[in-house]
Design goal:
By secondary structure, the chain is mainly α. Helix content is about 85%, strand content about 0%.
């Protein structure tokens, strides 16, 4: 797996975390949520250019996560 794909998967995970954190706030900032979701979608689109099949992308993400846990 290339470093680009690993970085995209990591960025997608980070954005997911930020979106969850923003939604957990008492008064979530709707503009920030919109921006974060657009960024996440843009990353997902870039990933799908490399992996048109969603199951293949999920498998690549699992491999990357296993590597990160063991490192």
């Amino acid at each position: 797996m290339t470093q680009l794909i690993e970085r995209l998967i990591a960025a997608h995970r980070l954005l997911n975390r930020e979106i969850r954190r923003e939604l957990a706030r008492r008064n979530p900032d709707r503009f920030r949520l919109t921006r974060l979701k657009k960024e996440r979608l843009a990353i997902k689109d870039r990933l799908f250019r490399h992996f048109p099949d969603a199951s293949e992308m999920r498998r690549a993400a699992r491999v990357m996560l296993r590597r990160a846990r063991t490192a």
